[in-house]
Amino acid sequence: MNSTLCSRIIVVSLLLLFAISAVNAASSYSIGSVTTTSVYVSPSGNDANNGLSRSSPVQTIGAAWQIVRANPSRGWAIELMPGTYTSVPYMDFPGYVDGTYWTAAGPTRAKPIIIRGVDGPGTATIRGAQFNSAGVNYLYYANLTIIHDETDLIHFSYANHLLIDNVTFIG
């Protein structure tokens, strides 16, 4: 086979791949009808609050995650109110020595865990975050800007049914 023919085959293959990717990118995915309880987070909140309303938000995503883990039979929406969150502390996971993985038992298609900017894209920024999760299924990120200056911005182990929608990753 001559090099011109090989080059044409490669170009046609790449064009076909890009066409398939464009069709897939144009389609959307709906999480469907889900049941969640909201826990609100605000940079001006207080981790002593229960986080169950906009008027009593917790301050950190870590505090919200502890609420989620304490009630695994529910679906959860961690609602990040407008502002910048400067870090996300690692969550304990007894199966890993370093304790740097988020875990949660129980999320299902009907009862997922959603972490989102509650007021839409561009309203909630998480800076200095490292999102490691293990065994967390049906985890959805939406309407966020996530900025990280070090390694391993986002990592999933033993997870499925993940959705990332309207999220900008920098780092």
Structure overview:
This protein has 171 residues and is an alpha/beta fold. The protein is built from 2 helices and 9 strands; from the N terminus they run αβαββββββββ. It has helices spanning 3-26, 61-70; strands at residues 37-41, 76-80, 83-85, 113-117, 124-127, 131-134, 139-147, 154-157, 162-170. Strands 1, 2, 3, 4, 5, 7 and 9 form a 7-stranded parallel beta sheet that branches. Helix 2 links the parallel strand 1 (37-41) and strand 2. The protein is globular and about 70 Å long. It starts with a helix and ends with a strand. Mean pLDDT is 76; it is low at 14-19 and 91-100.
Write a brief structural summary.
With about 170 residues, the chain is of the alpha/beta class.
Major sheet description: 7 strands, parallel
Low-confidence stretches are 14-19, 91-100
Number of E-type strands: 9
Beta fraction: 25-35%
> C-alpha Rg, in Å?
19 Å
Output the helix-strand order: HEHEEEEEEEE
* Average residue-wise pLDDT: 76
SS-based structural class?
A: alpha/beta
Q: Which overall shape is indicated by the principal axes computed on the Cα atoms?
A: globular
Q: What share of residues is helical?
A: 10-25%
What's the helix count?
2
